Amino acid sequence: MMKKTMVGLVVAGAALVGASPASAAFESYSPGSRAGSWTQQNDTQVAAKIHKLGTKAHADYYRTTDPGSYYTLWNKKATLGSVTYSGVGGRVTDLRTCNWVPDNDDECSRWEIRG
User: Using an 8 Å Cβ cutoff, are 95 and 61 in contact?
Assistant: First the structure.
C-alpha cells in the first residue's frame, strides 16, 4: 500500500513540474529584494510592492503594444507591503524592478524576458 501511494505522489509531482508556466506570474525583485514586481491578469497588468520599510521603487516593463518604449510604474509610498498597480494594456514581455536612489543611478535587477 505504501509503495503505490509513493508512486502516485511521484507521478503527480512530475505532472506539476511539466505544467505550463504561461499561467504563472511573471516576476522580478530589486537588488536586496527590497521591492518586487509581477504581472497579473494574463500578463496585461503590473504590480509593484515594497518589501523593506523606507524603500521607494519602480518597475520598468515593455508591452507588446509599444515594443520600442518601456513603461515605468512607481511605488513611492515607502510603506512595508504597499502595492501600486499599472493600468491594463498589451501583454508585458520584459520586466525589471529597481530601488530608487535619489540623485544617482537606480539599483535595478536584470531584465526578466518572456518575449
Answer: yes
